[in-house]
Amino acid sequence: QVQLVESEGGLVQPGGSLRLSCAASGSIFRVYAMGWYRQAPGKQREWVATITRSGTTNYADSVKGRFTISRDNAKNTVYLQMNSLEPEDTAVYYCNFDILRSLTTTRVEYWGQGTQVTVSS
Q1: Which long-range contacts (CB under 8 A, 24 or more apart) does 51-55 make?
Q2: If we measure between CA atoms, which residue out of 113, 101, 115, 79 comes closest to residue 2?
Q3: What percent of the chain has pLDDT over 90?
Q4: Under a CB-based contact definition with an 8 Å cutoff, are residues 9 and 19 in contact?
Q5: Cα(63)–Cα(60) distance, rounded to whole angstroms?
Q6: Using CA of residue 42, residue 61, residue 95, residue 6, what is the dihedral sign?
Q7: How far is 120 from 72, CA to CA, in rounded Å?
Q8: Contact 71, 88 (CB under 8 A)
Q9: Out of 49, 52, 54, 72, which residue is the most buried by the measure of CB atoms under 10 Å away?
Q10: Helix or strand or coil: residue 67?
Q11: Contacts of 54 by beta carbon, 8 Å cutoff, 6+ apart
């Protein structure tokens, strides 16, 4: 059993900052990649950022320069530092892990429960 638990989001003023975290627990041999997605009301879920186990990062153009993804491999935890937030960033944010549960299994993607981030004055 693998579970991904996200921190609480919240209400933030435009231009403000917020940090999200997501920790994986359960039967885990190794986490290979971690990422963040978001879904705004009435819109499709979109990819936000990804980080590999080695630390390589990639960002969607909409958040590049404002958001920073990081990870703690020892804690199986991924973070998303969100700066210069805009109303357009309002969405439910989901973490996503690529996990190998054991040497006898294949790699599988797991999702967090989602957390609401609202940017409004």
Answers
A1: 51/78
A2: 101
A3: 88
A4: no
A5: 6
A6: negative
A7: 31
A8: no
A9: 49
A10: strand
A11: none
